[in-house]
Specification:
The protein is of the alpha/beta class and about 450 residues long. It has 9 helices and 14 strands. Helix content is about 25%, strand content about 15%. A hairpin with a 4-residue loop joins β9 and β10. It comes from Phytophthora fragariae.
């Protein structure tokens, strides 16, 4: 599996994100209902809510699997299994909370009790993705330095993400096939998100993916003429790689240098957050904060499968997770199978899920100190636009005592991406394409 470890794309910041004070309270109430219950009951199960659980049940019917696990072809030179197929229909491991270490009423924080150890998770944080990791171009990066990861985009967009599809192929893309890409991406995003639901006050039970742009050298390469699937862009080529792209002015991203979101007011369509590039000339994939670049042939081969390994893996890179292939990239040779140790699994495993939770655990939204005496209403007196709200105007959910720490935590997570003035707009086309050793 190949990754892009340093594509320094154009990142600035949006002018305002308005969040209603009432939304803060209602959101906190919903979260504490699941988080507190899990703490009180000390259950080992996750908290997938009804809508998401129903979707999983529907997928179980839609994608019947004859096996519960991947068929293994052989073993890599580093001792990891190599799956026979890069697509499958079986279900990912069910998320659990393991051993809950947070106090009752606080955001649920926990440690694994099976599959992967806390020791291994700590090693990954210290040596691969945390602030103390030695940054190596194609191996390690610090997830806390970059604020353009998928988690950041999802919070900024309140649980949704917009895609531009970049078509780099000689063949024609028909509308029926194109319409399946949104469903595929949304299914893989939510397989990752299942590990965040109910954990550490993550505010989204289900993620939404929207296709807003389709880029090709010629519009005739798309087998439809309307814009029911999103706006079609013709002939806009990225000079760095020759691949069609959606317009720069439509790219919504965060500039880590200037600390602001991009001004997309000049976009003639809807802004996009990430891209999906489908290319005939590669058998593998790349991934980073800008999106995914995957093999067109492999994607078409597994178009009707529940799990497409390359897509799930590259989305993982978008969350800031690295590859795990060579022995030196893992805490031990027996590091458990994961989609980020691609070819060892076609599905998201507990290793992947717990590593993603560790990224959320270290997000720089400040936790309230025990000495904080601010009330629930005090935390939501001002919305992000600066409008004052009287305490009596903030509705408290009936029969719901929302702990201060939960409200403050949610408030901090949302305000972390608060309003900024657009000071300037800079572009950078400094791309760095780095490759791992592939199995």
């Amino acid at each position: 599996m190949h990754i892009v470890s340093g594509r320094q794309c154009r990142r600035l910041r949006l002018i305002h994100m308005k969040t209603s004070p009432v939304l803060h309270v209602l959101l906190a109430a919903l979260l504490v209902a699941s988080s507190s219950a899990a703490n009180t009951e000390k259950t080992a199960a996750g908290t997938l809510r009804t809508s998401r659980a129903s979707q999983i049940q529907q997928d179980d019917v839609l994608f019947p699997s004859s096996t519960a696990t991947d068929s293994v072809l052989g073993t890599s030179e580093w001792g990891a299994p190599v799956v026979k197929e890069t697509g499958s229909n079986h279900t990912s491991a069910k998320p659990t909370f393991g051993k809950i270490t947070s106090k009752a009423g606080e955001c649920v924080v926990a440690s694994p009790t099976e599959y992967i150890s806390e020791k291994y998770l700590d090693w990954v944080w210290q040596n691969r993705i945390g602030p103390n990791a030695v940054v190596v171009k194609d191996k390690n990066w610090s997830v806390m330095v970059n604020k353009n990861w998928l988690m950041d985009k999802l919070v900024h967009n309140k649980g949704s993400i917009n895609y531009c599809v970049r078509w780099y192929a000689n063949r024609k893309l028909d509308k029926t096939t194109a319409s399946k890409l949104q469903v595929i991406l949304e299914r893989h995003f939510n397989a990752w998100n299942d590990w965040l639901v109910g954990y550490n006050c993550w505010p989204f039970n289900q993620l939404k993916v929207k296709m807003v742009g389709w880029a090709a050298k010629e519009a005739s390469q798309f087998g439809w003429k309307d814009e029911s699937l999103g706006k079609v862009y013709e002939g806009t080529i990225d000079q760095s790689d020759g691949v069609p792209q959606c317009p720069d002015e439509c790219y919504r991203y965060y500039d880590n240098v200037n600390q602001m979101w991009s001004d997309t007011s000049a976009c003639q369509g809807e802004p996009f957050d990430v891209s999906l590039s489908l290319k005939e000339d590669i058998p593998y994939g790349f991934g980073y904060d800008w999106g995914q670049e995957v093999s067109l042939n492999n994607t078409m081969e597994h178009l009707h499968d529940r799990n497409i390994m390359f897509i799930g893996h590259e989305i993982g890179h978008g969350f800031g997770l690295p590859d795990f292939y060579e022995t030196k990239e893992k805490p031990a040779k027996d590091f458990p199978n994961s989609i980020m140790m691609a070819y060892s699994s076609t599905t998201i495993t507990p290793s992947d899920g717990w590593m993603l939770r560790r990224v959320l655990d270290h997000e720089p939204a400040p936790r309230p100190t025990p000495s904080s005496s601010s009330s629930m209403v005090a935390n939501v007196l001002c919305d992000l636009a600066g409008k004052k709200v009287k305490p009596e105007a903030v509705a408290r959910p009936a029969q719901q005592a929302v702990p201060k720490c939960v409200v403050a935590r949610i408030d901090a997570r949302l305000k972390q991406f608060g309003s900024w003035d657009v000071l300037s707009r800079e572009k950078s086309t400094n791309y760095s394409l780095e490759r791992d050793s592939a199995v």
